Amino acid sequence: MSDLHLVGLSIRNGSKIYPGTQALKNVDFDLRMGAVNVLVGENGAGKSTLMKVISGVEQLNGGTIELDGKVVAFADRTEAARHGVGIVFQELNLFPNLTVTENIFVGHEKTFGGIHIDSVAQTATARALMKRLEQDIDPDMPLGNLRIGQQQIVEIAKALAENARILILDEPTSALSATEVDVLFRVIGDLKRQGVGIVYISHRLEELIRIGDYITVLRDGVITGSRSMEGVDIPWIVANMIGTASKEFPKTVEHTLGDEVFRVENVCLPRPAGGYSVDHMSLSVRAGEIVGLYGLMGAGRSELLECIMAQHPNSSGKLFIGGAPVREKSVSGRIKRGLALIPEDRKRDGLVQIMTIRENLTLSSLKDFTRIFHLSLKEEAGKAAEFVKRLAIKIASLEHPVSSLSGGNQQKVVIGKALMTQPRILLMDEPSRGIDIGAKAEIFRTMRRLAGDGLGILFVTSDLDEVLALSDRILVMANGRLTGSFPAGANAADVVSAATPNLNRVDTL
Predict the structure, then answer these.
(1) Are strands 290-294 and 473-478 parallel, antiparallel or unpaired?
(2) Which of 211, 242, 273 is the last residue of a domain?
(3) What's the domain range around 385?
(4) Are 49 and 87 in contact (CB under 8 A)?
(5) String of DSSP letters for 445-462
(6) What are phi and psi of 60, to 5 degrees?
(7) What is the DSSP letter of 366?
(8) CA of 506: how far to CAs of 304, 355, 419, in Å?
(9) CB 269 within 8 A of CB 276
(10) Does 306 share its domain with 195?
């Protein structure tokens, strides 16, 4: 296969040093044109740093970059874009108050003579891109009105609009449904046939094998494996990523479930245009039980968790904790009653990026360290350090900004913040989104340990393997309604069938 695709961009002896850490160590990387170049590694392995170097966001401290055989040095993102390098970041870089069209063309607007913006041409192109991506998204809609999966599609459209020769996709499917993933893969196939060189980063290993032509594995800033994808399997990838044969999901540890600790009755969330995003949903969770809530994007899973956490004042329905009704109407009131939510979008809803790791961890539980008007920084730091150790969060200092951490470690901070409130019910919305398999296994072990201690957990996931491996009971949603209920060890086909919106199955309830 190596003879079929020419190297368009290469890095030789690439090194990148940040204060206190070396993110890349003498890396040699070849990006082949007309092919999908898969890049894989645990959180903090250096993948994102390598991509930022290629896209001009960061510059190497040592080594060279060659493009079409000529040495180049991208001073910034704009210069890399002029050379045909496009990137879709894992963390979305979009403006919620602008329309879909404006987001797609921000920084490279279509104009009349370089003066006036040609809004008609931009809208037409945006509409064509949405059609190409098989999305029914109005180009004139404010981006903030879209769910995160749809925003991810807009981010991909933004890169396609720049006609990049080299396209970097960093976790592009982390918020996409299975159908949207299929669409994306068809688009990638088209781009390959046009000769575009694609770098594809994902933690979903089956996805990498399905889409990849070449693979490069990073561990602690060093390339540990680089080859054609032919003959590569998951054990090979995992062995090169983490140096062991596997880090599988933890198996269910048997423990006795307690009494019902949480119940939801007839929760409804009306849509502005009519109908319901959450349509008379009822469910219960027992002490020590992990309930997996599975469904396709748009099924209403995230909206249900938001209703439970009092984020939608226009929602209706009843909640009970330990048999007692929950009457608190505020987020803080429900936290006090024992509810805690780990949100889907950690960057927007879970963390304050400019604050330190310590401050983010203790943000929801400051009352525990407060004596009248005095906050004990010593107690706060001690408790934060305890949770850093408990969740194996990789940090240099509690006082570093949380934005300095990798995505997986940021997610652990969000989980730690929730656990600090000592919840009776833990709500988790896509807890493993953008997390490598090592961090994922640690978080899942933590979930099992917490359940063993009597905590009730309700978690939302679009990963079928996760919901089957972790759940004591599986609930399925479609079109805002409960369409299936299955015990642990359920048949995967039955779960997927219940999630198909048009079936509206209730026969398994």
Answers:
(1) parallel
(2) 242
(3) 349-422
(4) no
(5) HHHHHHHHTT-EEEEEES
(6) -70, 145
(7) G
(8) 19, 46, 34
(9) yes
(10) no
C-alpha 147, offset from chain centre: 13
Q: Rounded to an integer, what distance in angstroms lies between the CA atom of residue 37 and that of residue 436? A: 18
Q: Please report, for residues 290, 396, 484, 487, 492, the alpha-carbon distance to residue 497 in angstroms, rounded to integers and kept in the order given.
A: 22, 46, 9, 15, 9
54 CB contacts (<8 Å, ≥6 apart)? 9, 11, 31, 65, 74, 80, 85, 87, 166, 168, 199
Enumerate residues 6+ apart whose C-beta is below 8 A from 457.
285, 289, 290, 291, 425, 426, 428, 447, 450, 451
List, in sequence order, every residue forming a beta bridge with 456; answer none if it has no partner. Answer: 425
Are 125 and 111 in a shared domain? yes
Question: What is the DSSP secondary-structure string of 4-21?
Answer: TS-EEEEEEEEEEEETTE
DSSP assignment, residue 349?
I
Q: Residues, the chain, total?
A: 509
Q: What is the pLDDT along the chain (509 residues), one digit of tens a residue?
A: 444 678 889 999 999 987 667 889 999 999 999 999 999 886 667 888 898 899 998 899 999 999 988 899 888 888 888 888 988 877 777 899 999 999 999 877 888 877 888 889 999 999 998 888 878 889 999 998 887 778 888 888 888 888 788 999 988 887 677 777 888 888 888 889 888 899 999 877 778 888 999 999 998 889 998 999 998 887 888 778 766 444 455 455 567 888 999 999 999 999 876 788 899 999 999 999 999 999 876 788 999 999 999 999 999 999 999 999 999 999 989 999 999 998 887 777 888 888 999 989 988 888 888 877 788 888 888 889 988 888 778 888 899 988 888 777 888 899 889 888 889 999 999 887 766 666 777 778 888 888 988 899 999 987 777 888 889 999 999 889 999 999 988 888 788 778 864 433 333 33
- When computed from its CA atoms, the radius of gyration of the chain, rounded to whole angstroms, is 23
Residue 248 lies in a domain: no
**For residue 271, which phi and psi values (nearest 5 degrees)?**
-85, 150
Whole-prediction pTM: 0.57
Same domain, yes or no: 409 and 430: no
User: b/e string for 60-78 if b means 16 or more Cβ within 10 A?
Assistant: beebebebeeeeeebeebe
Q: Alpha carbon 494 to chain centroid distance? A: 26
Q: 100: Cβ–Cβ under 8 A, 6 or more apart, which residues?
A: 126, 130, 137, 138, 139, 140, 141, 143, 146, 154
